[in-house]
Amino acid sequence: MTQDEMKRNAARAALAFIPANTIVGVGTGSTVNHFIDALGEIKAQIAGAVSSSEQSTARLKALGIPVLDLNTVERFSVYIDGADEINPQRHMIKGGGAALTREKIVAAVAETFICIVDNSKQVDVLGKFPLPVEVIPMAAAYVSRELAKLGGRPVVRENVITDNGNLIIDVHDLQITDPLATEQQINGIVGVVTNGIFAHRCADIVLVGTAEGTQTLK
Ligand SMILES: O=C(CO)[C@H](O)[C@H](O)COP(=O)(O)O
């Protein structure tokens, strides 16, 4: 089975966790694209979607799924999103698609975060995948110097502007042994919008696509 088939199976398994008439929070990425396609098949049974990126919004709208403004929604039941890495504590690195800030905001409003991944994303310690950090453009050099002091190797992602008009710094070679502390520490650097560690708001349920089928971890 290919990696993409495992992603698609995990994405389709998420449909079983969507209550009738609910608003669905939708993440970003290739795994989520499979989920959006599956959501299109049950669009009559949901109240609409809240989206974490312009890319997902366009795909949702193309399938006729209404996209709601998060400011009009107080709370909703499920948020479905992928991850670049996930550890056994269900802490994640996200932001490979540069949508980390909106993803973190939408996830904060959801009751349950369901993470959909193929098994290549499972790690014991976060940090092999370079950690994305969204920064205000004028702060990029300062933030890079501060990130280097933490032991990482910051590289501004070329030709990428986020949906919020900001830059992404990818931090290579960070061993993230305490994700809660590192998430907080990096978010404390002036000029950082947010970083891609999702530890304070980790996943509640993980659907892992494997060659043997999709596993559910809680
Ligand atoms: O955080 C993300 C986007 O900002 C994605 O969830 C993450 O990059 C995983 O992407 P994919 O499903 O394409 O492997």
Automatic annotation (TrEMBL):
<comment type="similarity">
    <text>Belongs to the ribose 5-phosphate isomerase family.</text>
</comment>
<dbReference type="InterPro" id="IPR020672">
    <property type="entry name" value="Ribose5P_isomerase_typA_subgr"/>
</dbReference>
<feature type="binding site">
    <location>
        <position position="121"/>
    </location>
    <ligand>
        <name>substrate</name>
    </ligand>
</feature>
<dbReference type="Pfam" id="PF06026">
    <property type="entry name" value="Rib_5-P_isom_A"/>
</dbReference>
<feature type="binding site">
    <location>
        <begin position="28"/>
        <end position="31"/>
    </location>
    <ligand>
        <name>substrate</name>
    </ligand>
</feature>
<comment type="function">
    <text>Catalyzes the reversible conversion of ribose-5-phosphate to ribulose 5-phosphate.</text>
</comment>
<comment type="pathway">
    <text>Carbohydrate degradation; pentose phosphate pathway; D-ribose 5-phosphate from D-ribulose 5-phosphate (non-oxidative stage): step 1/1.</text>
</comment>
<feature type="active site" description="Proton acceptor">
    <location>
        <position position="103"/>
    </location>
</feature>
<keyword id="KW-0413">Isomerase</keyword>
<feature type="binding site">
    <location>
        <begin position="94"/>
        <end position="97"/>
    </location>
    <ligand>
        <name>substrate</name>
    </ligand>
</feature>
<dbReference type="InterPro" id="IPR037171">
    <property type="entry name" value="NagB/RpiA_transferase-like"/>
</dbReference>
<protein>
    <recommendedName>
        <fullName>Ribose-5-phosphate isomerase A</fullName>
        <ecNumber>5.3.1.6</ecNumber>
    </recommendedName>
</protein>
<comment type="subunit">
    <text>Homodimer.</text>
</comment>
<feature type="binding site">
    <location>
        <begin position="81"/>
        <end position="84"/>
    </location>
    <ligand>
        <name>substrate</name>
    </ligand>
</feature>
<dbReference type="InterPro" id="IPR004788">
    <property type="entry name" value="Ribose5P_isomerase_type_A"/>
</dbReference>
<dbReference type="GO" id="GO:0016853">
    <property type="term" value="F:isomerase activity"/>
</dbReference>
